[in-house]
Amino acid sequence: MGSRLLPLSVALGALLADAAGLHRLAFYLLLLAVPGAAAAAFVAAADAFEARRAWPRAASTTLALTLLVTASAVRNNMPHGAAVPPLAISALVGAVIVYGLSLLGWLFEPLRPRVPVRSASVSVDPAAEAERVAA
Asked: Could you report the per-residue pLDDT of 72-105, keeping only the tens digit for each?
């Protein structure tokens, strides 16, 4: 979970910098958030390929990465001194919401009832196993 907290905190910092009117700082914070978001998306995708239950996390981190890249690309292409495009702010807010929902899911995960899994005991006959290996 720690790798998802870095891009969330940096994106929140960019959102606060935008609210304070420090748009250049918000742009640089967005650029700083992209590698952390990419790392979180790669880790989530690797976990999803190993276990089925990680697909929602992989989808949410990939969506948040896409929104952060969109926000930084739109900001990069705006003229110097112009107002921040609404698409950039909307994409940044969307990324924060997606990370926030993912964080809430992680926090409430221990409350979900879990079904205990019992392993079946298997007895192996050593003579039959030796014959199977020899064949």
From this structure: 999 888 887 788 889 999 999 999 999 888 878 7
Tokens of 2: 């720690």
- Closest to 71 in 3D by CA, of 94, 85, 84, 88: 88
Range of the domain at 26: 2-134
What percent of the chain is helix, strand and coil (3-state, nearest 5)? Answer: 80, 0, 20
Q: What angle do CA 99, 100, 105 make, to 5 degrees?
A: 95
pLDDT of residue 1: 46
The answer to whether residues 37 and 65 touch, using CB atoms and an 8 Å cutoff, is: yes
Question: Whose CA is closest to 100, among 24, 2, 4, 26?
Answer: 4
Residue 27's identity, in one-letter code, is F
- Report phi then psi at 93, rounded to 5: -65, -40
Cβ(57)–Cβ(43) below 8 Å: no
pLDDT tens digits for 106-130?
A: 787 777 676 676 666 666 677 777 7
Please count the structural domains in the chain.
1
Q: Does the pLDDT of residue 51 top 80, yes or no?
A: no
